């Protein structure tokens, strides 16, 4: 469900200015038919993912000769890759990133898959730099993005889960480090301490939050680390990448200050389902009556200088505080019908206050630390994690994909026939390499790769489905493998440490019945086969790695 945006026009030649806001798939198909009326193109409007497997089902994939994809997220690429491996279809995976681009060829029974290897993780800004010691506008923009998620998305999601999921508390308390405390404090703030009932309440919250972030927190930081603070070696603490900040004073006549309050108040109201306002004069009048507590330095506040310090602190959890929070939270039964509305960041809608908040929040923090501010355009690029797309890069990558497509159509089955491509037009750099062969594994003198699997027919000759007991015996008899654990997705169907009563109950149940019971989901009518993962021991009792099972049920 991808729509055409104005920014697409400079590099996607099938689209024209009058196509903006139309669906990409339909528009591209129509444009291709104009170029060649004899070509057969079918456009789809449904996204590809686990929730549309009833649409993109066995029939859909089995009728394909191959897949060419240029998706915009790693998760989406890995999903399509898994489907191509399951259906044993060639995949031409490609992407661009500014002047950089790549093409990867995935051929059944010949190459590794897209998911077989991963790029090294991107460099991340240290948390302590973001929280306390920014020195570049990129730091303040990332801080503003985190602030957006932490104010208008995550708390609302957690509140809704708390209200409808009886196991929310149990699950939250199992989280690592200080996460349980952070989640429960956010839920308490949202339901008790800061819950607004009117637009005026939202303006009051926004003003007080402004003072907390740009005045009180900075004063607390300077209380812990005064401007003349020295390190243990006698060097100034505020030196090098550490910029000494200064608190801001709220000025109702400062347009940036009012921008922040307008955006924050409207987003806060939206997250509670309240009506906001664009009346700046009206907000200015409301602000005159807002009382903000005087700042008083807090003792015992630990501000971490490095991520190592932060990780050490997260190892200890205040159990007493957790129990206090549990007791202070209102019971879900006392809030019938109440829910919050999580806000997903959308950079391209200038009327939704999202970028207004990001720009104001970032530039105010930049002012705290004497960092040059960023205009709206740069803020959108950084906050939206946008690398401008270049038509030349797209054209080069499409050409390289087509070269590999011809080889797939011709049916080449030698590894050296195919080439993965890596380019960077800025250098310029062009590199071509043979795809890596699919890694080989072995069990009991049997060699296999990711393209292999066990094929098990669930429906037996007598018309009845295989039970768990029969499934276990089948692998012991036919493959000399003792199954120690068996799962389908995230559902554990069998394990050697399973309680005897549960094992006795499941052994004589049909496999699909066990899957439905454990996953608490009825299998869809489109499901013809299940993917089962196994841990096994060989005849010598050694743990061995084995392929997955394609368990056919019809």
TrEMBL record:
Compartments reported by the entry: Mitochondrion
A Gene Ontology molecular function term of the record: ubiquitin activating enzyme activity
Record bears the keyword Phosphoprotein: yes
Residues annotated as transmembrane: none
SMART domains: UBA_e1_C (SM00985)
CDD domains (UniProt xref): Ube1_repeat2 (cd01490)
Catalytic activity: ATP + ubiquitin + [E1 ubiquitin-activating enzyme]-L-cysteine = AMP + diphosphate + S-ubiquitinyl-[E1 ubiquitin-activating enzyme]-L-cysteine
GO biological process, one term: DNA damage response
Coiled-coil ranges from the UniProt annotation: none
Residue intervals of the Ubiquitin-activating enzyme E1 C-terminal domain: 418-549
Keyword Mitochondrion included in the entry's annotation: yes
One cellular component (GO) term of this entry: mitochondrion
EC supergroup of this enzyme: ligase
Active site residues per record: 128
Pathway where it operates: Protein modification; protein ubiquitination
InterPro entries in the cross-refs: ThiF/MoeB/HesA (IPR045886), ThiF_NAD_FAD-bd (IPR000594), Ub-activating_enz_E1_C (IPR018965), UBA_E1_C_sf (IPR038252), UBA_E1_SCCH (IPR019572), Ubi_acti_E1_SCCH (IPR042063), Ubiquitin-activating_enz (IPR035985), UBQ-activ_enz_E1_Cys_AS (IPR033127)
Keyword list, A-Z: Acetylation, ATP-binding, Ligase, Mitochondrion, Nucleotide-binding, Phosphoprotein, Repeat, Ubl conjugation pathway
This enzyme's EC code(s): 6.2.1.45
One of the Pfam families matching this protein, by short name: UBA_E1_SCCH
Matches recorded under PANTHER family: UBIQUITIN-ACTIVATING ENZYME E1 (PTHR10953), UBIQUITIN-LIKE MODIFIER-ACTIVATING ENZYME 1 (PTHR10953:SF155)
Function: Catalyzes the first step in ubiquitin conjugation to mark cellular proteins for degradation through the ubiquitin-proteasome system. Activates ubiquitin by first adenylating its C-terminal glycine residue with ATP, and thereafter linking this residue to the side chain of a cysteine residue in E1, yielding a ubiquitin-E1 thioester and free AMP. Essential for the formation of radiation-induced foci, timely DNA repair and for response to replication stress. Promotes the recruitment of TP53BP1 and BRCA1 at DNA damage sites.
Family per similarity comment: Belongs to the ubiquitin-activating E1 family.
Stated name of the protein: Ubiquitin-like modifier-activating enzyme 1
Lineage: Eukaryota, Metazoa, Chordata, Craniata, Vertebrata
